Amino acid sequence: MSITAINAIAGICFALLTIEFVYVLLRLAFSDRKSRIAFLKNFKIGRCAIVYVIAIPLYLAGHMYGGKSFFDGLFSAVHQCVNLVVLKYSTDSVAMLMKESAFYAATMYYCFILVAFNALLFISSLAGMRIWRKANAAYVRRSSRDKLFIFGRGEECEQLYSSGENYSKLIVSELTQEEKQDLYVKKICFVPRRAENYIPVVFSDIVKRKDKYVIVINERTQDENIRLCDTFVHMIRKYVQEGEEKGAEQDIFDRVQIYVFGNPQYEDIYNDLQKRAYGCLRYVNKYQRTAIDFVKRYPFALFMDETQVDHSTALVRDGVDINAIMIGFGKANRQIFLTSVANNQFMTQGENGPVNKQVNYYIYDKENAENNKNLNHSYYRYKTETAGVDASKYLPLPEMPANEFYSKLDINDNTFYANIRGVLDSNKKGVNFAVIAFGSDLDNIDFAYKLNEKRREWNVDNLIIFVKVRKTHDEVSLFNEKDCFEIGTEASCVYDMNALTNGWLYAMARSRDELYSLEYDYTSGNVDKETIKSAEYVEQCRKACYKNWFTRRTQLERDSNIYCCLSLRSKLNLIGLDCVGKECEGKALTNEEYLEIYSKGFPLVPRKDKAELWGKPIISYDLNFPDSLRTNLAINEHQRWNAYMISKGLVPATIDAILNEKNDKGKFTNGKNYELRRHGNITTMQGLIDFRKLVAKRSGMSEEDCDVIKYDYQLMDDAWWLLDMNGCKIIKKSARG
Questions:
Q1: Which of the listed CATH numbers 3.40.50.720, 3.40.50.300, 3.30.1300.10, 3.30.1370.60 matches domain 143-284?
Q2: What is the value of pTM for the model shown?
């Protein structure tokens, strides 16, 4: 065979190799990750053979040039190509030709290079996922960034992972091959091990390193969640007890946060685990989170205008009813009901001043929804235990915070729409809300379409429809219509790391707790007043309050502070104002402009020493609470606090308990006992006046020192500061929310 013919064969092979090489590079460079991984998998099923096939004519030409027959040369070429598969390069048999033709030699070496490249791709197709996974897991563990370990699998865990942009992060769970491949395609770093077996690895890192760790537990069963929590609690307690003298408790609290998603059915179990974890474990009730998000975004007062609420008094006008129709009463709507009752509180003018204006809740479910062990333990405990009691043994008992009307009625019942229409027809002057949460997203949305059509048929303009969905449905045109809203999208209010660890509402509640701790230190004289004003002391106090929030405050107390801040927007709406993020549209009111509206006729009085803490004047309170908008909002706040306590299952303490009960340290409890779920302040505003008189007489103190009514003023007195501190502003309320 002539050199010319051989060079022609080499040229064809060179061109084929180049075409293959360029094709592979283009596929790798311009495909998305999913397509690229799928392309690499082809190398396991024969894609890699193309390079070796092209090498056969190169070897054959060399053998024939050396004098072999066609068939002898072919078999030798095939044998050498088989050796190439295991990277056994051989040029001895074609060395003569390579010396004679530089182009042939270059083509042969080019083939060898592509064989090596091909081998790398083949190895990647076989072990790429494992290599990538192990390398990334090692990087996560050794990175200096804050760590995020998610124990669990599924869409919710992936949402948490994606939202944790500022963390070195890892998902840990037993995974099927399909789940591994899916996470690999999505570039989600994972460790396919049983969570219980990997916890010692994580905790070993916690002990050895000084990084911060956020751990999320969201396995598929509550048994697994509780078991993993217990494992972490055991290790935390051992670490603290062994290193008590070295400040191990503060160290573990500062560096480790564990969030567990738990079914509210087992809330008491999770609360017990929290108590034993030195503040590191935080229970997350996703139904409560979505309910709080709903009330935060859509308080009922947002949809009420001057024809329904007198903004100068914050009182609902005469003859205006507020109805909430709840379609379905499972976990989601039951929690929405409790959260709404604890926040959507209203008053109207009575003969002797403001009186409660209860929201009417019309509850429809195919089961007997009022028969529920959790409701009996919480909301209905007050109603049950105060029925028929000797009222003289108590301070004045408040009314139930809402009116409930239960109907065992399936949406498929032929009287269903007639029943709802009867509710709407009876309330022409007021406002009606429908909260749909009985089935899947599509079930709820489909029914919302039907109810929206009925609203048009009935010519009802005062019905606002809320649809509970787990995911955002941009394709649904219903939510572009007036007064139709989707609520409860979990990706934004539950499975989001920023919302989970530092949502603005929760930060605001802690700010309020920190502020009043500072004010207590100042007014009680426990600390030198100049020291308290220093930035160092403020930071020290805030740090202590943050720890106490999780270690000394009960879940009930934390939620009480959160719900208090949650109600702030509703109160602003009642006086024609609103609050939004500072980045939102709307001219911000100054503090002076806000106070001109809020405290007109009853201005705030600073302390005589003009003291300020954390940029806010300390307000002075006496026993003079004249009729005013400011006082009405304070009454509303106490009413809301009563509603919250009742929703959590607390009942009033007797007068005897207020006067005589003492705790383990020998101090009077004033009737407050969270273990027995009793409180001495669950009463009317007149009852609070009676309360301070009783306590003052018993203790030999002044009534001013025993007054608790001033605390009902504080939220709105400090509203501008509180919102400004947490990235919000007060604006004028728009005409329709």
A1: 3.40.50.720
A2: 0.86
